[in-house]
Amino acid sequence: MKKWRPFAKMPEQYIGLKEIINKQVEVAQTVLTEEQMEQINFTLIEALHTNKQIYLTYYKNGQRITETGFIQFVDSLGNLVIFIDEVFELKNKMRLSELIDVRFM
User: Fold this and answer.
1) CB burial readout 68-91, b (16+ within 10 A) else e
2) Which residue, 68, 75, 76, is CA-closest to 102?
């Protein structure tokens, strides 16, 4: 432990290394076709009306994130989706442009 203490005095290195690692993990945002966007729209509306649980994959901060939950509100004119997370039962807001894929469980 004492051997590595001099290196702990340079927190800038740890911050720089963490940024480099995060940039290597980043994924470019997927560009969807019109057909894919329509399919996502239909799936969202069906999940809203039937209250079925869905897998929701979206792009955030350079990463693809998949969560399960229920759709509560869809506003296609305002580019907004509100879904309730299955694990913590929290309301999450996101833009429709961030969605990559929506599937039923």
Assistant:
1) ebbbeebeeeeeebebeeeeeeee
2) 68
pLDDT tens digits for range 4-48: 556 656 677 777 777 877 788 788 888 889 999 899 989 999 999
Strands 99-104 and 54-60: antiparallel
For residue 1, what pLDDT is reported?
47
pLDDT of residue 18: 78
Buried b (16+ CB within 10 A) or exposed e, 22-61: eeeeeeeeeeeeeeeeeebeebbeebbeeeeebebbbbee
Q: What is the pTM of this model?
A: 0.72
